[in-house]
TrEMBL record, chains A, B:
Record's keyword terms, sorted: Glycoprotein, Glycosyltransferase, Golgi apparatus, Membrane, Signal-anchor, Transferase, Transmembrane, Transmembrane helix
Location within or outside the cell: Golgi apparatus membrane
Protein name per its UniProtKB record: xyloglucan 6-xylosyltransferase
UniProt keyword ATP-binding, yes or no: no
Enzyme Commission identifier(s): 2.4.2.39
Family: Belongs to the glycosyltransferase 34 family.
Length: 460, 460
């Protein structure tokens, strides 16, 4: 984005140029009465002087107006800037077209034509039953698609973002960095990624869009044992740490939160749906079915929002969100669900960014990767930063710089194998941290994290 | 990016406002000689009239200047626009800061302090010898990291983009879509991805940056059999097609191109380095070492560019690029290298976009995925579109819309398993293409492409 070349922000400088028609001067001359020849010399000089003043002033005005029209400030700039500006303007026009989705080939979609029946409960899809046995049979019949690989249950990480460009241009850049961060972590831990950029259900758009996609993936990937939803504004910051799946053998939903905030205070932030794991089983399909009804956009979501605000402590007034709705569901139907829900807080499956991002240098000094908790957070989650949208809850500068720091903090752990590290946590540039040798495999043995899996030891 | 609110593009309208100090009038008064009292009434009126004219003119000028400064055109816009504009301006400021990399903790880097010796040949790193046996020993010692998985050689796809936000904001959005496209393909084919956003070597920046990264990955990932470099502007468009590795058992470099363009015409586009495979072996390390010397930015790259332009048919005059340099190397040292180079054109390992993007609907009508060639291109490569930069070789609109089409054409093949497809090749919206059932595993059996690998049958 180049400098605004408009001269309107620059103070006028320099004197007038050419001689515009000097109507004021003429008017002045005519208004004065009498021709020139009749005036004394002194008066004539004064008159001439006045005319010159007015001419200069008019010339000045004309130049100001002309500068605004033709952009004199741009005459000296390179044609490259002009080309750049043209490209950006054309891009914006095309963007607007894409955003308005002016594709004429829109076809009928049953979801759109059916009248919304407010009395009917919204359904994610036809009710599936016996999924556990269906899945078990399928796995037996398809041994080339086991649900465990190298002794570890298969995990699929689901994340995503809206299909259209971000309102704030920097948003797409941070989405890109965020997905690179996830690619790195998942490559090192044998986790598959699905990056969703489609709204499977118009009614469940926004933060609710994860529900239909999770269901669709559970049913389409019987070989996957766990679906791990992760927000696009959450970054991995402990590249070594591994989800301690053995902890959850008897559970189907693993979510970060605090039991006292949940059961005692009924706080709307008792749990965080920015990063959670859901097992591929009938229970999970049932949970999704029970969770979804507050989601459909419009009157249902609005009314549900009021219920949630009344019920949950600290919740502001806004439409129903998936997190509040889940908390409400788990509290109001505690006996049905809680036995299979693991409320995890021994490591940062979700780590709220504010208390973490300023301590990265201290962490490097005192601790090491693999801890996953407040000493070296597994996930740093930029709740409220919203780089893709326009209305963040936090200052833009604080957010962007913090995200940059988190990204580089994680990237350093990845680059270590390759012998590099960032020059500073705000720097995109890297430097060598280790000399190259003619025996590179010694470094591989030493630094490839896949060769040294870390075991989680909870502090409590 | 909001409207440019500067009034400099608007014609001035309205009359003057306040009364600025009228130095011209005063000067005029003083220059005229004599006080007011000494002038006849008519002359006094004329003088007054002149002063009023000058006052009005000066007021007019003042208003023009003020409008430019405070942006009167903006006073009526909504506060939301103002907030949005503020956020975007602040973002730009931060971006400029990040781009200028003002991190004070820059440390010394040996590469930077050494004086460039133009007589010395540039080296990617210390000369590695005996890599084949080093690697073989390592593989034997580390059976948990085999170079083949499920009977298929392990491939690592390397792609990337510069660490800073794109000059053109839409660029980051297409980089995001491009990496999602690669994530989808690679998930379905068991290929690992490294997304590089770091310059490992300042001298080899730009299109040359792939060389040091490829070398680093070969040496750091002995378990990987092939490194597959793919440009960020290349999209997978045949999700089913699989690289026919058996074809290349005796080769170490697989690259798209045409032998007659290469050997007969010495054309600078005889091969395309936007998508190629390099085997993990000593030969490849040697090739990289022989390839790199034309790359160092500055006089070396400039001079090398002249050599390449003189030698290669059709090459414009510009600094040495990696593609021309490789062609030159393979031609000038044909006997050393060509035996192990497979010049592939039986499918579109690289498919130039212009002749392909308008035919996608026709392809859907007549053909099917898995062919990989002009009937259903494996890769559609948007050479010259440069959405991240400013100086594209093709019209912006044509490029962006074509990339959108290619992305959706590929995405349809991925979404098919889930029962969805885009409403049109330009539409981000999707629709159901298959009703949901209570027996979803039937769809899995039918549509999961991993269950129906396709065998490549060359037409020649």
């Amino acid at each position: 984005m180049g400098q605004d070349g408009s001269p309107a922000h620059k103070r006028p400088s320099g004197s007038g140029g050419g001689l515009p028609t000097s109507t004021v001067a003429n008017g002045g001359g005519r208004g004065g009465g009498g021709g020139r020849g009749l005036l004394p010399r002194g008066r004539q000089m004064q008159k001439t002087f006045n005319n010159i003043k007015i001419t200069i002033l008019c010339g000045f005005v004309t130049i100001l107006v002309l500068r605004g029209t033709i952009g004199v400030g741009n005459l000296g700039s390179s044609s490259a800037d002009a080309v750049n500006q043209n490209i950006i303007e054309e891009t914006n026009r095309i963007l607007a077209e894409i955003r308005s989705d002016s594709d004429p080939t829109d076809l009928d979609d049953p979801h759109e034509t059916e009248t919304m029946n407010l009395n009917a409960t919204y359904a994610l899809g036809p009710k599936i039953t016996g999924w556990d046995s269906q899945r078990k049979v399928w796995l037996n019949q398809n041994p080339e698609f086991p649900s465990s690989v190298n002794g570890r249950a298969r995990i699929l990480l689901l994340t995503g973002s809206p299909p259209k460009p971000c309102d704030n241009p920097i948003g797409d850049h941070y989405l890109l960095k965020s997905v690179k961060n996830k690619i790195d972590y998942c490559r090192l831990h044998g986790i598959e990624i699905v990056y969703n950029m489609a709204h499977l259900d118009k009614e469940l758009a926004g933060y609710w869009a994860k529900l239909p996609m999770i269901r669709r993936l559970l049913l389409s990937h019987p070989e996957v044992e766990w679906i791990w939803w992760m927000d696009s504004d959450a970054l991995f910051t402990d590249i070594l740490f591994q989800i301690p799946l053995a902890r959850y053998e008897k559970h189907n939903l693993v979510i970060h939160g605090y039991p006292d905030l949940l059961f005692d205070q009924k706080s709307w932030i008792a749990l965080n749906t920015g990063s959670f794991l859901l097992r591929n089983c009938q229970w999970s399909l049932d949970l999704l079915d029970a969770w979804a009804p507050m989601g459909p956009k419009g009157p249902i979501r609005d009314e549900a929002g009021k219920v949630l605000t009344a019920y949950l402590k600290g919740r502001p007034a806004f439409e129903a969100d998936d997190q509040s709705a889940l908390i409400y569901l788990l509290l109001s139907q505690k006996d049905t669900w809680m036995e299979k829900v693991f409320v995890e807080n021994q490591y940062y499956l979700h780590g709220f960014w504010e208390g973490l991002v300023d301590r990265y240098e201290e962490m490097v000094e005192k601790y090491h990767p693999g801890l996953g908790d407040e000493r070296w957070p597994f996930v740093t989650h930029f709740v409220g930063c919203k780089p893709c949208g326009s209305y963040a809850d936090y200052a833009v500068e604080r957010c962007l710089k913090s995200m940059e720091r988190a990204f580089n903090f994680a990237d350093n752990q990845v680059l270590k194998l390759y012998g590099f590290g960032h020059r500073g946590l705000l720097s995109p540039k890297i430097k060598r941290i280790r000399n190259e040798t003619v025996t590179p495999l010694e470094s591989v043995d030493k630094f490839d994290i896949r060769r040294t899996p870390v075991e989680f030891k909870p502090q409590n």
